[in-house]
């Protein structure tokens, strides 16, 4: 509209110039129209610049709209893939829950608990009395229970150096002539706190692995201290054989333990240990072969 007005003003200015020259229009009127013409031309240039800017903005907005459309399509594809992955994880979780419930419902395999020879039983009783904070001895079952928090750091399968001498003393008891007819089955247990740190999970993917690795570490020290490898075996129950509910810090500490069962030679690998989906048993061969393949 303003462009047409300015064009009209330009035509009028030319006509007035002719009239001025012919003496029909005053110089003042002519100057007024000339000023109006210059204003119209300036306005036209400003509007042309705005129009060019608007066109550039439209092109930028169109490009942004196309980019957002592509991004939306990518996100929809990602959401679809995540939904498929979530569905698979839900199925895996259900399977794991079913396995956990099956394992939790099983009874601990019965381990034969014969009457130990008096010298061996007395030595074990003295051993437990010497380390009351570290170990408990059940003379009726022939079981030593070691507190894992004193044996190992949390998430570790490496026996603490200051505990090694105690295990070496136990090895001497196992090497007594009166204990020659008995073997040792080392059983690891954990609490139900999942292994979260990546560096720990790389070494012990689950509590099951951690419990077995700890049993192997104890067995390796006993082997180094002189107990023949064919007299030992290891098992690991992970979190599935708690002594107490894992609902307090104190209870979880009690559930983290390593038990050593002293059983007749013919009992190891036999029905005294039974077959359970909740435990993993492996006979000892040589300490350097069965030691954990991970390092802290």
Overview of the structural elements:
With 296 residues, this protein is an alpha+beta fold. The protein has 2 domains: 2-77; 109-290, 60s Ribosomal Protein L30, Chain: A (2-Layer Sandwich). It is 55% helix and 11% strand. The chain contains 9 helices and 6 strands; from the N terminus they run αααββααβααβαββα. The protein has helices at 2-22, 27-105, 118-130, 148-151, 164-174, 198-203, 207-224, 249-255, 287-290, and strands at 135-138, 143-147, 182-189, 232-236, 257-264, 282-283. A 6-stranded mixed beta sheet has the order 1-2-5-3-4-6. Helix 1 packs antiparallel against helix 2 (27-105), helix 3 (118-130) runs antiparallel to helix 5 and helix 5 (164-174) crosses helix 7. The radius of gyration is 44 Å and the shape is rod-shaped.
What's the helix count?
9
**In the CATH hierarchy, what is the class of the largest domain?**
Alpha Beta
Q: Summarize the biggest pleated sheet.
A: 6 strands, mixed
Widest beta sheet: strand line-up = 1-2-5-3-4-6
Low-confidence stretches: 270-296
Average pLDDT taken over every residue: 80
Distance between the termini: 83 Å
Secondary-structure-based class equals alpha+beta
């Amino acid at each position: 509209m303003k462009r047409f007005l300015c064009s009209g003003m330009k035509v009028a200015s030319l006509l007035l110039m002719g009239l001025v020259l012919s003496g029909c229009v005053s110089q003042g009127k002519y100057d007024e129209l000339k000023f109006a013409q210059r204003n119209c031309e300036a306005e036209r240039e400003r509007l042309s610049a705005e129009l060019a800017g608007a066109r550039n903005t439209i092109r930028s907005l169109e490009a942004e709209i196309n980019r957002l459309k592509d991004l939306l399509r990518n996100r929809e594809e990602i959401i679809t893939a995540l939904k498929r992955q979530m569905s698979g994880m839900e199925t895996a979780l259900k399977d794991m829950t079913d396995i956990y419930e099956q394992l939790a419902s099983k009874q601990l395999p019965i381990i034969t608990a014969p009457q130990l020879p008096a010298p061996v039983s007395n030595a074990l009783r003295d051993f437990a009395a010497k380390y009351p904070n570290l170990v408990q001895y059940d003379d009726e079952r022939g079981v030593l229970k070691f507190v894992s928090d004193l044996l190992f750091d949390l998430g570790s399968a490496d026996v603490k150096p200051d505990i090694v001498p105690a295990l070496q003393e136990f090895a001497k008891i196992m090497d007594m002539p009166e204990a020659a007819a008995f073997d040792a089955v080392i059983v690891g247990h954990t609490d139900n706190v999942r292994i979260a740190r990546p560096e720990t999970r790389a070494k012990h993917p689950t509590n099951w692995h951690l419990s077995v690795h700890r049993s192997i570490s104890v067995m390796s020290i006993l082997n180094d201290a002189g107990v023949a490898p064919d007299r030992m075996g290891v098992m690991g129950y992970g979190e599935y054989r708690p002594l107490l509910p894992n609902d307090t810090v104190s209870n979880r500490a009690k559930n983290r333990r390593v038990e050593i069962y002293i059983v007749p030679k013919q009992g190891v690998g036999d029905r005294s240990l039974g077959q359970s989906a909740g435990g993993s048993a492996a006979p000892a061969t040589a300490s350097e072969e069965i030691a954990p393949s991970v390092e802290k």
